[in-house]
Amino acid sequence: MKSSIKIVFFTFITFSTLSAFSQNTDKKLFNKIDSYLKASATNGFSGVVLVAKKGEVILSKGYGWADRENKIPNSPATVFNIGSVTKQFTASAILKLVEQGKIKTSDKISSYFAQTPSDKKDITIHQLLTHTSGISNRAGGFRYNEASKEQFLKEFFESTLQSKPGTTYQYANANYIMLTAILELVSGQTYNAFLQENLFAPAQMTSTGYKSIHFSTERLAHGYYYNRDDEKWTDWGTTQQHLPYNNNHWYSIGKGDIHSTIEDLYKWHVALKNNAVLTSKTRETQEKAHVAENDNMTSYYGYGWAISKTDRDTKIVAHNGSNGLYFADFVRFTDNDVVVIYITNVFLGRESENVAREIGNMIFDTDYKATPIPRNIYELIHEFMKTNSSTNVEKLPDFLKKELQNKFNDHAILNRLGYSRLKKEDQPGWALELFKLNVKLFPEDGNLWDSLGEAYLKYNQKEDAIKSYTKAVELGSEGSQSILNKLMKED
Question: What angle do CA 435, 437, 439 make, to 5 degrees?
Fold first, then answer.
């Protein structure tokens, strides 16, 4: 009797110790991730992050503003545009039709559309799902322009294939718009209605959908971008304000622009893990590495998911997406039962794309220290220009290296800012100095010499313009030769 009491007591103490250790570890991880995101927020980061391990949410938090003007902060309940993370829902809807016995992934699109031309008649649903249909990534128009379903289909069928169907991976949004057309044709429902009934409702997702809103619009995150011409941050508004008000949304639907929260996306992750929406066999097919995304074969495309491996040789099932302002990343470390969900409404730069992966590094490497997202580089340069005269342009690279904590190596940024200033400056000033600095930093780029020549011409410095265009021609800049010939004739 005493022995059994000792065993029970020992077991209780052991589990209590393990629980305390786990809580302490999770608290340390929370603080580490939170510190990284808070430091990023001081540089302008704005968004939401959820991190969960083995079914336990470690962090679910908002940073920055959902609506700056009305001082509405981001929170786990804030609704964002999730970009191409949408594709996993479109793919799941198609697979739901497969489960229902209504279609097969081997079906050819010509069996659904009589107008399919001969070059596209053998394209299969599988090829649409895996971006191997051969369709161009330029097929279809700008996502927020109006286009009927008939208009999109006409453009899809009349477009020129970039490769023979089934032979080459090429990511193209039109694949998923076509899948949506098939989905609506087969199901007899709208895209949004089918997803709500078959995906979102079973997963208990109440703040997710395409266009439809059943909650306060104050929960919608505004998108913000730095306008380099106006030299200030600009409120783009919400996705709902830009999508066509009618059903002529066929440049957007299926491939992107679903809105959701990190809370709902986590519910989706749980529903997938528990086979509450799709069977385990279907999920295995969806998360299979069907086709290589690159020549190095380090990443593969499944059905609406990208499949890769960590340095520890464990599986990652992920997808990101953006409309140019919002950026979302949904990363599932499936072998470890870890998920990181990240969405931002302020794209500061390339580092904004790495947040989920940086958090992943912190989760699996206790010694890893992430560098906070730096401020927007255009904003930084404008700040430097406001506090320095153009004669101090040579100090700019060191200023940027200090602020970015990395060497400045982007050829295009000073070029873009140079042209922005060129429109405003009638006399030589920052525009000319930015172009001159750019060719000094990247002397082998002929396009930059061409831009410098254009600036010299504006300020009537013809001799220097000829030198710049001559250098551009030597470096193979297309179009520079004709301008150089014209200048030489004038002499």
Answer: 75
For residues 184 and 176, give the distance between their C-alpha atoms in angstroms, rounded to a whole number.
12
Q: Which helix H or strand E contains 383, and what residues bound it?
A: helix 377-387
Tell me the pLDDT tens digit for each residue of 358-389: 999 999 999 999 999 999 999 999 999 999 99
Integer angstrom CA distances of residue 102 from 93, 168, 183, 187, 406: 12, 28, 10, 8, 53
* Centroid of chain to Cα 259: 14
The pLDDT value recorded for residue 407 is 87
Confidence (pTM): 0.90
**Cβ neighbours of residue 201 closer than 8 Å, sequence gap 6 or more:** none
Percent of the chain with pLDDT over 70: 95
CB-based contacts of 336, cutoff 8 Å, min separation 6 = 53, 314, 364
Q: How far apart are CA 313 and CA 295, in angstroms?
A: 19
Burial (CB < 10 A; 0-12, 13-18, 19+), residue 18, is exposed
Residues whose CB is less than 8 angstroms from the CB of residue 127 and which lie 6 or more positions away in sequence, other chains included: 133, 134, 165, 166, 175
Question: Using N-to-C axis directions, what is the helix angle for 173-187 and 87-99, rounded to 10°?
Answer: 40
Q: pLDDT, tens digit, for every residue of 262-282?
A: 999 999 999 999 999 999 999
Rama region for 471: left / alpha / beta (φ>0; ψ in -120 to 50; rest): alpha
Q: Which amino acid is at 240?
A: Q
* Vertex 333 angle, CA 328 and 334, to 5°: 120
DSSP reduced 3-state for 376: coil
SS3 label, residue 300: strand
| Contact yes or no for 119/136 (Cβ under 8 A) | no
Question: What is the 3-class SS of 384-428, one letter each residue?
Answer: HHHHCCHHHHHHHHHHHHHHHCCCCCCHHHHHHHHHHHHCCCCCC
Give the pLDDT confidence of 286-311 residue by residue, as tens digits: 999 999 999 999 999 999 999 999 99
Q: Is 183 exposed, middle or buried (0-12, 13-18, 19+ CB in 10 A)?
A: buried
**What tokens appear for 230 in the block?**
């106006």
Q: With beta carbons less than 8 A apart as the criterion, state whether 50 and 76 touch.
A: yes
- CA-derived radius of gyration, the chain: 26
Task: Collect all residues with Cβ–Cβ distance below 8 Å to 415 and sequence separation of at least 6.
Answer: 434, 435, 438, 447, 448, 451
For position 214, what pLDDT does the model report? 87
